[in-house]
Amino acid sequence: MSVAIFTGAGGLVGAEAMRFLAGKSLDVVGIAAGAVFNMGGGRAANCSVLEAFALTKALTGRPMRRGYQPESRAGDHTWWISDTRRFQAHCPGWRLTRGIPDMIQEIHDEAASRAEAA
Predict the structure, then answer these.
(1) How far is CA 108 from the centre of its chain?
(2) Strand, coil or helix: what is 30?
(3) Which residues of 90-114 are buried (b: 16+ CB within 10 A; e: fewer)?
(4) What local confidence, expressed as pLDDT, does residue 29 receive?
(5) How far is CA 74 from the centre of its chain?
(6) DSSP strands (E only) in the chain
(7) Which of 30, 43, 94, 116 has the most CB atoms lying inside 10 A of its own CB?
């Protein structure tokens, strides 16, 4: 059985990649067994924390509670954009189907659904 591993912080982007591959033989799309792709999102699926806060406020009508410390924590990076070109080269038919506002809406809807169920 062929297996491809998708890693990175962009869970929704990785999930889209997995949906694209669902039901396809990895041999057909040219992915070797055990191949690893960083699916953290690429430039099209990234925003700053402040941008995410603004989108969330626009969605909910409420500001996010937040604080700020000028010192970075050890290991923090200012900005990280994953390079998804390797996956796109193997799967030229794959494209993101949702933008950041869509993804934030999906996160909001899931959180609301869980809150209702609790």
Answers:
(1) 15
(2) coil
(3) bbeebebeeebeebbeeeeeeeeee
(4) 65
(5) 24
(6) 4-7, 35-38
(7) 94
Q: Is 74 contained in some domain? A: no
Indicate the number of domains in the chain. Answer: 1
Structural domain contains residue 107: yes
- Does pLDDT of 1 surpass 50? no
Distance, in Å, from the CA atom of 6 to the CA atom of 82, rounded to the nearest integer, reads: 12
What residues have CB less than 8 Å from 92, skipping those under 6 apart?
none
Q: 26 lies in a domain?
A: yes
Q: The domain containing residue 110 runs over which residues?
A: 4-67+79-117
Rounded Cα distance between 99 and 97, Å, is 7
The answer as to whether 33 is a domain residue is: yes
- In angstroms, the Cα distances linking 5 to 15, 35, 73 are 11, 6, 29
